[in-house]
């Protein structure tokens, strides 16, 4: 005897729809389990998070029927705290900011952007680096050169020329030409029109290369004997350590 459609077991999709109507919602966020209310998740109607739980479920469920979000679960607790009590996190600011952007929670995004960490990065440092021509491309070029020279070596080095003004660039041109004749690769940064100094840019280079997982240090480049130029203040050697 066949079972009529009205008596068939509830499938995943139907179960999820019924679960969606419950005011209590169980979540699996990247392997971390959370329980909250539907109203908390939908607190900011224009957000991507609210959209996930508006109308028909837009998320898959795990084996236990919990809604699954494929994001870092560790930082979702800070998102949830904000939704529950408007408490702006004071820990893991950079990571929580990324999650706030993903979930598109505009009030939290704006408050985090006022924090010293995000303000300093977005408004100060990133705005400065945007005025340094080809900055990101030069970072990648440095890494490419260092990797090419790392064969059977513990360390490899990259010569970097940093010039803040057009006058500095002109002073360094003879030195750059000499290095080019010696078939030595040099990555040139600048010039730029902003307050930060050469030292500030060097710190930025180290910070951004290290953020990609590399271990580096830098020091003034010491010219080889017989190398004729007086622009040593603009040349630096970045040392990549591989093991």
Automatic annotation (TrEMBL):
InterPro entries xrefs: BTB/POZ_dom (IPR000210), KCTD7/14_C (IPR057890), SKP1/BTB/POZ_sf (IPR011333), T1-type_BTB (IPR003131)
Organism of origin: Hippolais icterina
Gene name of the record: Kctd14
UniProt cross-references to Gene3D superfamilies, sorted A to Z: Potassium Channel Kv1.1, Chain A
Domain of life per record: Eukaryota
Annotated transmembrane regions: none
Protein name as catalogued: KCD14 protein
SMART domains tied to this protein: BTB (SM00225)
SUPFAM superfamilies: POZ domain
Domain BTB: 23-120
Biological process annotations from GO: protein homooligomerization
């Amino acid at each position: 005897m066949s079972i009529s459609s009205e008596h068939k077991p509830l499938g995943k999709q139907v179960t999820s729809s019924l679960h969606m109507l419950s005011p209590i919602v169980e979540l699996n966020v990247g392997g971390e389990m959370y329980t909250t209310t539907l109203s908390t998740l939908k607190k900011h109607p224009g957000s991507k998070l609210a959209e996930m739980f508006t109308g028909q479920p837009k998320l898959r469920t795990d084996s236990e029927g919990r809604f699954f979000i494929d994001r870092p679960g560790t930082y979702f607790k800070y998102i949830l705290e904000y939704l529950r009590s408007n408490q702006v996190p004071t820990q893991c600011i950079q990571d929580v900011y990324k999650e706030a952007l993903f979930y598109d929670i505009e009030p939290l995004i704006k408050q985090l952007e006022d924090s010293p960490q995000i303000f300093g990065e977005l408004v100060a440092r990133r705005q400065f680096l945007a005025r340094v021509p080809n900055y990101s491309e030069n970072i990648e070029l440095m890494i490419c050169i260092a990797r090419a020279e790392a064969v059977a070596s513990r360390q490899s080095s990259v010569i970097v020329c940093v010039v803040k003004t057009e006058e500095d660039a002109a002073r360094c041109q003879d030195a750059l030409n000499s290095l080019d004749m010696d078939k030595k690769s040099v990555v040139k940064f600048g010039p730029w029109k902003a307050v930060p100094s050469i030292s500030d840019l060097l710190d930025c280079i180290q910070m951004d290369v290290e953020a990609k997982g590399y271990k580096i240090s830098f020091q003034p480049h010491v010219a080889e004997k017989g190398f004729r130029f007086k622009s040593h203040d603009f040349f630096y050697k970045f040392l990549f350590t591989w093991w």
